[in-house]
Amino acid sequence: MTGALSIRNVGKVYDPDGARVFALDDVSLEIAAGELCVVVGPSGCGKTTLLNCIAGFDTVSAGEISIDGALLAAPGRHLAPGADRMVVFQAGALFPWKTVLWNITCGPVLSRRLTRPDAEARARALLSRVGLAGIEAQYPAELSVGMKRRVEIIRALINDPTVLLLDEPFRALDALTKSVMHEALLELYDLSRKTIFFITHDLEEAIFLADRVAVMTTRPGRVKKIITVDLPRPRNYRLLATPRYGELKQEALEAIHEEALKAFVAGERELA
Amino acid sequence: MWQGLAGIALFLALWQIGTWLRLPMLRHVPAPLDVLVQFATVVQSRQYWLSWYVSGQRVFLGYAIGVLLGVPLGLAMGMSRIFHGVSFPLVEVLRPIPPLAWVPLSILFWPTMEQTIVSIIFLGAFFTVVLNVLGGVEAIDVSYQRAALSMGARPWHLFWRIVLPATAPSIFTGMAVGMGLTWEIVVAAEMIASIQAGLGFMMWQAYVGGNIALIIVSMASIGLAGLLSSTLIWALGRRLTPWLRRT
Predict the structure, then answer these.
(1) Nearest-by-Cβ selection for B150 from A55, A141, A142
(2) Which of A17, A99, B50, B51 is most open to solvent, judged by the fewest CB atoms within 10 Å of its CB?
(3) pLDDT tens digits for range A40-91
(4) Where do the H-state alpha helices sit in chain B?
(5) CB-based contact, A135 to chain B, within 8 Å
(6) Interface list for B 99-158 with A (CB within 8 A)
(7) What is the ipTM of this complex?
(8) pTM of the full predicted structure?
(9) Residues of chain B numbered 212-231 and touching chain A (CB < 8 Å)
């Protein structure tokens, strides 16, 4: 099994006009192959920066990131983005000018990893798996936000990444749609068991989905606490009512509340 | 469609009633029925259709060159920071100069009046297209390119599969706005330049000859020509951007 993601002592300094801003400071996180790891933290804690460094959209200032021992990023070096690290973006990035089917199949077809018939067959199978059969010929603008997110996750999975990077994918959704999305994501996860790096600031979402939850500190971002979620899989919404879920949530809440408070006070000070 | 025709009919009816009532500002203006009669005569003349043809040809040439050069230039300015740095200030200085202000210099520069008029039409279409395309490229969400890179896109994929379709709506907006400008310019140019045919020329001749009904026929013809060409551009745009149609 491949997909062990190793983040070692990673730092990121932004230096616009000499004002050194520490976005990440000495972040270390070892994610096992096939693990679903959720990173939570207050807004502006550097979660997205860390994801961008893994994806190859940004560079690190210190430390190193590797997958299965192969170096991805170190100061002065970074591997360009590629299909081994698929990203699902916060605001969504389905191409509005193409149909759902083309959006899903374009990666493997254009880079000749799958033939068009094969890719389309896989796309149809995955779509019906999450209850979206029959929307292949529609344009993204004709879909609801929840449908778009599922299509986007399928588009990421069909590229057969080593790691799947999700940047607050369900942020814009209402609570009901969110719970449907969580079950759809877990269903797809159970199919392939890709390593998943998932960012959110929603604690309930984090615990429901994760094998482990990493709580980050407010800026500069650091890993403050790792909570192992020992809840059985496959999971469904009934889990939310169990006492163990409540305990884990309490534990995470205490860790993150302190950070949220710090971020809030820092924000107040900036405004004053 | 029917609402539009009803609006035009209402406008003509009010105008007709106004002339019957002998409103002072309509004293020298013929009634729509008289204009219609003039129109019926003029469509039988070869000269009238020649005017359409000549003006249309000038517009088409200047516009086509403007679009063919403007789209690539706008795309290049949007994609290359260095090229943007070199060319944007120049474009911004030249753009506010009204196309008609180029007439004296163009007359000196181009050997024939025909080329002068086409070059001025070109300028009107060109800057409009360049700025719309540039705006379109700059407004592309960076997530699209990142998503494409994640899926293993090569540089040419980014251009053909992301930049071009993402900019297409802006290209057609620029083309439609530019088309409207070209008809304004061709008429004005034909009125000041010494040439022998064209819808603007026809109107000027009618003015010199004191035929007011013919002036109005010329004006309506110019309006129709503009409407026709804009409709063509929008139809082309809708056909090539099907994802915008159903939203």
Answers:
(1) A55
(2) A17
(3) 988 777 889 999 999 999 999 999 999 998 998 888 888 889 888 999 988 8
(4) 2-20, 32-42, 46-79, 81-94, 103-109, 113-138, 142-150, 155-157, 164-192, 199-209, 212-240
(5) no
(6) 141, 143-144, 146-147, 149-153, 157
(7) 0.85
(8) 0.84
(9) none
